[in-house]
Design a protein that fits this description.
Elements lengths: L1 H24 L7 H19 L24 H31 L6 H6 L1 H6 L7
Helix pairs in contact: 1-2, 2-3
Length: 132
């Protein structure tokens, strides 16, 4: 049952991230990778700390807190999951920044404005993709 709740909540949250939040924050994500993988993965990681139970674990020690619901309110695993999410965001952000800076130095990240205006099919390939 927890997996169904996690999946349903991830579906709703990812839908709003891709349809509403993306347009409100005006960021360019044509494939909705951030809205699905970033937001959905973050929610899934945190909810894992909420719904984790001894039934799906090899930990048999009585009294040891597992998930928030299984342990009767112990937030230690949820806090651990939140810390892991923050570390992952910082790692991915710094790694992306370093790679993008390196690419920008070597070859640039944008095409010239006139090429973008004319269209990359024409400027880079010498042909039109669509004849409208």
């Amino acid at each position: 049952m927890p997996a169904l709740l996690m999946g349903a909540s991830a579906g709703v949250v990812c839908y709003f991230a891709c349809s509403k939040i993306k347009h409100a924050l005006k960021y360019d994500d044509a494939l909705d990778a951030f809205g699905v993988h970033g937001v959905g993965g973050t929610l899934g990681a945190i909810l894992t700390g909420v719904f984790a139970s001894r039934a799906a674990s090899d930990i048999t020690e009585e009294g040891r807190a597992i998930g928030l619901l299984d342990s009767g309110g112990d937030m230690s695993l949820v806090m651990g999951q939140i810390v892991a999410v923050v570390v992952t965001i910082v790692f991915a952000g710094l790694g992306s920044f370093i790679l993008l800076k390196g690419l920008d130095i070597v070859m640039g990240l944008r095409v010239p404005a006139d090429s973008e205006q004319r269209g990359l099919d024409v400027s880079d390939h010498g042909e039109e993709g669509y004849m409208l």
